[in-house]
Amino acid sequence: MGEMRYIGQTHYQLEVCGLKRNLPVIQVGDDLWIASFVMLGDTQLVNVCAGALASKLAGYDFDFLVGPEAKAVPLLHALSTILGHRQYIVCRKSVKSYMQDPLVAEVESITTQGVQKLVLDGIDAARISGKRVAVVDDVVSTGGSIEAVEALMSKAGAEIVCKAAVLKEGSGYTGDLIYLQELAVFRR
């Protein structure tokens, strides 16, 4: 799908897994607009998409699901439940006082201004050292968040067996990715 022409549209209708959502189109750069996809609070969307992603991930052998904070958290939870995993790991956006020896990676995203951090608690890093992980996010656009999670997994000594998302947005990410639907970006 890649790019679409921006002609002043305020909404974009997305259909994923048979569900339709009317997404607001928002400007995120001088000549870049995106259809804002937020799963937080949409239980039906999270559960249906998690079920569809779970069927795509079922053939992979992994010990943990891992993803970035915050919009992917309900997806991680639902996937973990469906796949029968007891735990999932969240890479946080800042160092928390309870963390022990946290690992840090920097990330740039089209939806966040400037550079932000992703942080893996040292306790979680020890749990996944030598383990196989599936990296999951809600939307992959440029791949910045996925790359930061990959860097954290490398620092922790975990092996990434697959990467998955509900949506692949635009054509900026060219790595291997399991996804349910493409989502266009808009340019004038």
Q: Could you give a short account of the major beta sheet?
A: 5 strands, mixed
User: How many strand units?
Assistant: 12
Report the order of strands and helices.
Answer: EEEEHEHEEEHEHEEE
Helix percent reads: 10-25%
Q: Compute the average pLDDT.
A: 93
Helix count from the secondary structure assignment:
4
Distance between the ends: 16 Å
Low-pLDDT windows of residues? none
- Tell me the strand percentage band: 35-45%
Structural class: alpha/beta
Radius of gyration: 16 Å
Globally, the shape reads globular
Strand order of the largest sheet: 1-12-4-3-2
Describe the structure.
The protein is an alpha/beta fold and 188 residues long. The chain has a five-stranded mixed sheet with strand order 1-12-4-3-2. Strands 6-5-9-10-11 form a five-stranded parallel sheet, with helices on both faces. The longest helix has 15 residues, at 43-57. The model has no long low-confidence stretch (mean pLDDT 93). α1 packs across α2 and α3 packs across α4. The chain has helices at residues 43-57, 73-83, 122-128, 144-156, and strands at residues 3-5, 11-16, 19-29, 32-35, 64-68, 88-91, 103-109, 112-120, 132-140, 159-169, 178-183, 185-187. Helices cover 24% and strands 41% of the residues. It has four helices and twelve strands; from the N terminus they run ββββαβαβββαβαβββ.
Task: Please summarize what this structure is.
This protein has 188 residues and is α/β, with parallel strands linked by helices. The protein has four helices and twelve strands. Strand 7 and strand 8 form a beta hairpin.
